[in-house]
Amino acid sequence: MREVRVRFAPSPTGPLHIGGVRTALYNYLFARKMGGKFILRIEDTDQVRFVQGAEQYIIDSLSWCGISFDEGVHVGGPHAPYRQSERKDLYRQYADQLVESGKAYYAFDTPEQLDSLRKEYELRKETFQYGPSTRMVLSNSLTLPVDQVKALIGSGTHFVIRVKIPDNEIITVNDLIRGTVSVESSLLDDKVLFKSDGMPTYHLANVVDDYLMKVSHVIRGEEWLPSAPLHVLLYRFLDWEDAMPAFAHLPLLLKPDGNGKLSKRDGDRLGFPVFPLQWTDPKTKEVSSGYRESGYIPEAFLNMLALLGWHLESDQELFSLDELVEAFSIDRCSKSGAKFDPEKARWFNHHYLSAKPAAILAGYLIPVLKENGIDAGRDYVEKVCDLVRERIVLIPDLWEQSWFFFNDPISFDEKVAAKIWKKETPQLLEDYIDILKRTEPFTSVNIETVSKQFVKDKGIGMGQLMTPFRLTVVGTNAGPGMFDMASIIGKDTIISRIKSGITKINT
Ligand code: GLU
Description:
Blueprint lengths: L4 E4 L9 H16 L3 E4 L13 H12 L5 E2 L15 H13 L3 E4 L3 H13 L22 H9 L5 E4 L6 E6 L3 E6 L7 E3 L7 H11 L4 E5 L6 H10 L8 E5 L2 E2 L24 E2 L6 E2 L2 H4 L3 H9 L14 H7 L10 E2 L2 H13 L3 H14 L6 H11 L8 H4 L13 H7 L4 H13 L6 H15 L3 H13 L7 H8 L1 H16 L1
Parallel strand pairs: 1-2, 2-3, 9-10, 11-14
Antiparallel strand pairs: 4-5, 5-8, 6-7, 12-13
The structure holds glutamic acid (GLU).
Glutamic acid binds next to helix 6.
């Protein structure tokens, strides 16, 4: 069997969209599952759309996710260089080979000429295509005399090289997800393969590199399906059919309402990030949020992405990266678009984050404490993390859910106070302080026992004690169980908060 070699081939035209991360992930899973190789190739032949910093962003994003490569622009390998701009000199010979074999031709039409043709067609409500029906009336090596073509090229006139799409032919792409996809060649146009700036276009460079890098499977987004027939033709025209990779076009990621593709331009507009890491546009300085900076952890992010377009028959949802490698197969990828569900992303994050050992959670919280000028002992922070873990969805929730373990409340929720703070409450809490003072050791169990006895002796319900108690300790009626919380915060602080709460709420 052919060695499995797959590649992720992004163009550095901006930050990597989460759909791109999913494409990289599926390629990675497939390579690992099959014991093959995974390549990172940077397709930067479009100099106009090149964005400074995008390549590094792509590398950093995938490395944050834990997606690793065997060969690529950042790790090298037997087929280096892996950046197309550095392979520039290699493509021309293939374009020339296509011209010599009559599968491509030189075209001299200027952008202005083509533009005015397009406009003319538009006026007639038609679409201009450079192709079988128009090429013979345009300015190219099929219509001009050989000498003139030579003279034009010799004098440095700008030209492009276009593929010559065959007339009336059915071109078939065998897709591992979609089955057989057939296209009538008249629907294709004579795409430019080689540009006047001396660079190949995506189509030529992509096919040449997949061939030279011995890529066995092309796994990419559905938006590339319309290009696949041209790629199949190029393999044939270059006599590489035997080495043609298998194709798999992944379903689109859709907006949460299913209305259209989730695009880069959606940015933060829909209320959730569409990029793995925060991105600052180098030109406009506009900042787009990222999953990492929003407090997601990589295992949750990857698990969520893995299920957008692939699932097991059992509908199992929770997978570690190793389990994904084990379970993944292309034939369980779906054809139809996958709706992105931001709530599900939060659900996964809660699942993985709340299961982290206290030491890891403390590692997330300590820098925030430092920023707030708090220097708490590690043991204490870990105990706090254990107590609030069930309440956290994103990393910043750790602080939101625990600040009152480190600071006294500075305000008291007026609505809660209006509802539960009665004239007899201060005395009740004073009596409770006397009980707490005598509670030794100050453990959760002991506090619970004395509190139960206390309300019983007073002839009141537990809530009548607990809500005002909580209000003085936290400032609201939120937070984890009072007995656990009180035992961790400690007797002295608890008593002083009750006292200060009584004074402040009374006034
Ligand atoms: N450079 C293309 C992109 O930016 C690669 C498409 C492919 O995988 O063939 O997505």
